[in-house]
From TrEMBL:
Recorded catalytic activity of this chain's protein: 1,2-dihydroxy-5-(methylsulfanyl)pent-1-en-3-one + O2 = 4-methylsulfanyl-2-oxobutanoate + formate + 2 H(+); 1,2-dihydroxy-5-(methylsulfanyl)pent-1-en-3-one + O2 = 3-(methylsulfanyl)propanoate + CO + formate + 2 H(+)
Enzyme Commission code: 1.13.11.54, 1.13.11.53
Record protein name field: Acireductone dioxygenase
Record's subcellular location: Cytoplasm; Nucleus
MF annotations from Gene Ontology: acireductone dioxygenase (Ni2+-requiring) activity; acireductone dioxygenase [iron(II)-requiring] activity; iron ion binding; nickel cation binding
Binding site for Fe(2+): H87, H89, E93, H136
Co-factor note (free text): Binds either 1 Fe or Ni cation per monomer. Iron-binding promotes an acireductone dioxygenase reaction producing 2-keto-4-methylthiobutyrate, while nickel-binding promotes an acireductone dioxygenase reaction producing 3-(methylsulfanyl)propanoate.
Source species, domain of life: Eukaryota
Gene: ADI1
Species, as recorded: Kwoniella pini CBS 10737
Record-level GO BP terms: L-methionine salvage from methylthioadenosine
Pathway: Amino-acid biosynthesis; L-methionine biosynthesis via salvage pathway; L-methionine from S-methyl-5-thio-alpha-D-ribose 1-phosphate: step 5/6
Cofactor(s) listed in the protein's UniProt record: Fe(2+); Ni(2+)
Family named by the database record: Belongs to the acireductone dioxygenase (ARD) family.
Length: 185
């Protein structure tokens, strides 16, 4: 995992867009992001770690998603565009990367990163938890392939609330997230 301020230079979203300004795990934690490395090895012990983590955090369900041009066919470009639309969820977003690589961009909410994008580069063995209410977006990198395990506290659901909609900022999950960040600083 590598995190840094997004450079905001127009161009292919699948490129690194590394501004050269690194972001620490502490800063990510202050924004409510949980990161954990669980290396995938032949001995399958990583499965025990995922099961233990899931039990600790109350994740009862999981599924797997593979994002590739071959797998999604003609829908690939539209799907990537929809993932990259700035949005929030009313539940945590938990991803464990099984193969491939990609980026989660999260929106900073406190100085010096207020309203700046922070890019988190993830690859095989990286686990990330984005808190409910955080504005974010996702894209594969230039390899155009990622397989991730998605963990859920209840029935699997993935309802994005686009920031472009007028009522998204007023959602309870957003208000609770901002309060959580304020209280942790």
């Amino acid at each position: 995992m590598k995190a840094y301020v997004y450079d905001d230079i127009p161009g292919d979203q699948r490129l690194p867009h590394d501004s050269g300004n690194p972001i620490s795990l502490k800063t990510l934690s202050e924004l409510g992001v949980i990161y954990k490395e669980i290396p995938i090895k032949e001995d399958k012990k990583w499965e025990d770690e995922i099961n233990s983590f899931s039990k600790e955090r109350g994740y009862k369900n999981r599924d797997q998603i593979t994002v590739t041009p071959e797998g999604l066919g003609e829908a690939y470009e539209d799907k990537i565009k929809s993932f990259f639309d700035e949005h929030l969820h009313e539940d945590e977003e938990i991803r464990y990367i099984l193969s491939g690589s990609g980026y989660f961009d999260i929106r900073g909410v406190n100085e010096p990163y207020n309203e700046r994008w922070i890019r988190i580069s993830l690859s095989k063995g990286d686990l990330i938890v984005l808190p409910a209410g955080i504005y974010h977006r996702f894209t594969v990198d230039s390899n155009n392939t990622i397989t991730a395990m998605r963990l859920f506290q209840d029935e699997p659901k993935w309802t994005p609330h686009s920031r472009s909609l007028p009522d998204t900022d007023e959602r309870i999950a957003r208000e609770e997230y901002l309060q959580q960040v304020k209280n942790s600083n």
